Amino acid sequence: MTKASPSLAFLCIQSLKLQLLQSEDPIPDLYELPSELLDGVVAHLPALALQNFQSHMPFHCWGDYESGDDCLINGRKRARNDVLGSSWKVLFKLRWPEFIDHVESPADWQQLYWEKHLQNCADEAAEVALRPTFSGRICSINVSDNILRFICHEEHVSCQKCVCKKLSFHFKTFGPYLRCLRLLNVLCVAETSELLRTSKLQHLVLRWIRSEKHVEHLCKLLIQSRDTLTSLEFIHCKLSSNSISAICASLHENGIYTTGMQRFCIKTSSIELDPLAAPPAFVSFLMSVRTLHSLHFCDSNLDRHITRMVFSTLLDSSSNLSSLDLSENNISGWLSTFCWRSVVGSPSSGKSLRSLCKLNLRGNELNKYDAENLAHALFLMPGLESLNLSGNPIKDSGIRSLISYFKKNLNSCLADLDLENCELSSCGVIEFLDTLSMLEKPLKFLSVADNALGSEVAEAIVNAFTFSVESINISGIGLGPLGFLALGRKLEKGSKKLLSINISKNRGGLETARFLSKLIPLAPRLISVDASYNLMPPESLLMLCDSLRTAKGDLKRLDMTGNSCINQAAEHSTLLCEFQHNGEPIFVLPSSFASHVPYDDDP
Ligand SMILES: *[C@@H]1O[C@H](CO)[C@@H](O)[C@H](O)[C@H]1NC(C)=O
Ligand SMILES: *[C@@H]1O[C@H](CO)[C@@H](O)[C@H](O)[C@H]1NC(C)=O
Ligand SMILES: *[C@@H]1O[C@H](CO)[C@@H](O)[C@H](O)[C@H]1NC(C)=O
Ligand SMILES: *[C@@H]1O[C@H](CO)[C@@H](O)[C@H](O)[C@H]1NC(C)=O
Ligand SMILES: *[C@@H]1O[C@H](CO)[C@@H](O)[C@H](O)[C@H]1NC(C)=O
Ligand SMILES: *[C@@H]1O[C@H](CO)[C@@H](O)[C@H](O)[C@H]1NC(C)=O
Prior knowledge:
Structural class: alpha/beta
Strand order of the largest sheet: 1-2-3-5-7-8-9-10-11-12-13-14-15-16-19
CATH class of the domain at 454-603: Alpha Beta
Bound molecules: 2-acetamido-2-deoxy-beta-D-glucopyranose
Number of strands: 19
Strand content: 5-15%
Number of helices: 22
Distance between the termini: 46 Å
């Protein structure tokens, strides 16, 4: 094969590209080139060259409308900026095609490009530093050709004395674009603060920090970044009392928190605090940082003593927190020593968590006594909208405590309530669902999934979604054919509110389809139905198709996986074609025929 000879413009661009990659200084006259040629150059530059082009661009060529200069007319300048902006987007897409959809527009693609680039470099450097044979300095780790080929260009990669080989070059040059960073323990070393000196970090995620040595270096970085830091997250870490104290102490200067710290999260870690001697720096952090709105300690070995200490500190300081996540710990008893009469009874005590919207207590071994105490504590959270109690054995007595809370507080703000797998029985749940109809503001979302409720709850459930709940999750509650039969019978008025329903794993057989084909035309706002794993036989599908044809609804998704309702592959594709919502198939069908279903399980 013969190669077509390169055009003059191409050669010209190649030469400029090389110069831009190699020179620290502006290239004389480059910016005086005719606009079309210049735009052509810009469109062909690798990232480092584009960066150099842009950073040497004379001020008068920028699209600065106020400056009243004479470089180019306004329209031109706007066009130049658009060309640059979209070139960064093109480079981003080329390098991380799978991420482009996750970026919110309008975005500063140049900033995102270098931020993600530095994350890639950091991840790669961590891998190198983890090798047992590694003994050098982090700064001098070589960035791989795999990365460099996007930054420079293919020929440049083999260049031995290229400045951009070293990690330190990248952090020094592109550091100012870095706002968010994840760091592995091996990178929490003395050099790190130096590497990140030009960065204005806002979000920092630390992983596998387990020694005080790492914490010591981390603290230097925190001190350096505290003016800009708003979010700090620890995952897979082991934090001693000393470590937590040092971390919190790094966030303020002489008692003044310069940071606008908003999120503090510890996940899947272990925290070792002595609740009787909690480090003053930690307590002061909780009490004084008024900007803090998310505090998460998930799956971090919290016991009731620490949790009580944290909770009462927040309460005493009337914290401005909006989300508190204590899920997957073991905190049963955390509220038992509060004297509720004195805290709740007298408004003069003034203690409350007025701004708290979201409380996640999932999987905490909470029992009926905890639920009773919680029902008192809820009065101190008048703005609470979402409560997650799933995976706690609170039983019927527990749900009765919630009932009594609701009865005393009919204008509660609570909108999302998750009572999945709480060892509830039909008695408790029926009472509870009946109470819901008394509320002034109905619930938006309720889950009582994975409780052995049986078919008796059917009537109460129908009432709930007819009058008060928009989305209901009754997956795995043991409805069976009898339960679905009863649901169908009670379904007379229809439901103007219902948006989504999860009836999966209820072994309802054909009755599931009967119920659904009655529900669909009666629920005009229904968007999503999960009817998976219900032992539905083949004739179910015909029934549902009929009902979909007659209904004038808005159904987007009807999940039928795990049912044996399909006979032939041909039937399968007909269905997908006939029933669509905005070009997407409505049915999610059993997997034996679903290999070519364009459905993404992870929206
Ligand atoms: C980095 O690359 C240079 C030249 O390509 C080489 O001399 C040096 O040994 C490398 N450094 C490391 C730590 O691998
Ligand atoms: C309290 O939190 C809200 C939102 O979470 C925020 O808008 C407000 O500024 C915070 N108050 C203070 C004093 O920081
Ligand atoms: C939870 O903590 C209690 C003590 O507070 C302890 O008795 C119980 O064994 C713990 N449960 C689990 C599953 O660790
Ligand atoms: C409760 O927590 C679980 C697990 O974290 C989550 O899947 C569920 O959506 C939460 N429920 C609510 C109402 O936020
Ligand atoms: C409904 O409950 C099931 C079973 O516990 C759970 O896996 C699922 O995430 C829940 N769905 C929603 C939307 O809460
Ligand atoms: C319904 O619940 C099942 C678990 O029983 C869960 O796997 C599924 O994701 C839920 N469906 C929706 C739409 O949340």
